[in-house]
Amino acid sequence: MKNLKPMLLEVNANPSMRIEHEQELSPGVFENVPSPVDEEVKVAVIRDTLRLVDPQKKKKKDNQSFKRGVEGGEEDAVGRLWAGQRCKTPESGLPSLCLKQVFPKYAKQFNYMRLVDRIATLFIRFLGVKGTTKLGPTSFRTFIRNCRLSNSNFTMASVDILYIDITRRWNSMGIDQRESGMSLQAFVEAFFYLAQRRYKALPLHEQVASLIDFCEYNLAVLDEKRLGCGRGIPDRRTTLLGCQPEGLHISPVAHMPLLNRSTAAHKLAEYRNHRS
């Protein structure tokens, strides 16, 4: 944390919630007996996890609102007694929480670390067909075009070569052979390559962050224009941008929602402020 306090997070794919263990009573004869250590640790973890979710939170608020309402009424004593009884929860007798909620409580504080998450959002946008988990060559080309990443030094032929090289290497590792195409891991590698190529003078973290900002800015412009054209609003932005410029390739993704006007405007302003 900012105060240098460490937070330990453990991710276990298949945790055991058993609170007993096998004990050999005699040769070849085993019996499950309770484990005081497991009971002390695992019961507390499950209990505190459910308390963090807190399904009773809404009921507590309703009870407090009711209590405030009846306190000013004619049936003061009865109302307070009834509300006080309802406000009592089983949690009142429990020990203090041993678990701490880190996300999304500290989401803004760690926002600078969400680069891979933002790259994944770009990846999902260009998947093309709902339910697929890999990018095809056409979708990767659409990503490059819509984000305006190609130029005279990085042609679409170079884009195809990059797609083939990275996809072939990741597919040769034997990861998810059920469908062909570029996986998320391969897309992240390609994105890092594009960032290093475009922003050579910056450190790697800033290279990737700058390219994400650049892609989000161009996609926000595209979404804003598509919204203006779809609604038939002849405003200044639509007039300047045009509805069907030559060579524009719209993303084939039909199931991904467009940014609304306020979000698109925020993205544009955010990118301009960042660049200035």
Automatic annotation (TrEMBL):
GO CC terms, sorted:
ciliary basal body
Q: Which GO terms describe its biological process?
A: microtubule cytoskeleton organization
Gene3D superfamilies registered for this protein in UniProt: ATP-grasp fold, B domain (3.30.470.20)
The domain of life for this entry's organism is Eukaryota
GO MF terms listed in the record are:
tubulin binding; tubulin-glutamic acid ligase activity
Q: What is this protein called?
A: Tubulin polyglutamylase TTLL11
Which species? Answer: Sphenodon punctatus
UniProt lineage: Eukaryota, Metazoa, Chordata, Craniata, Vertebrata
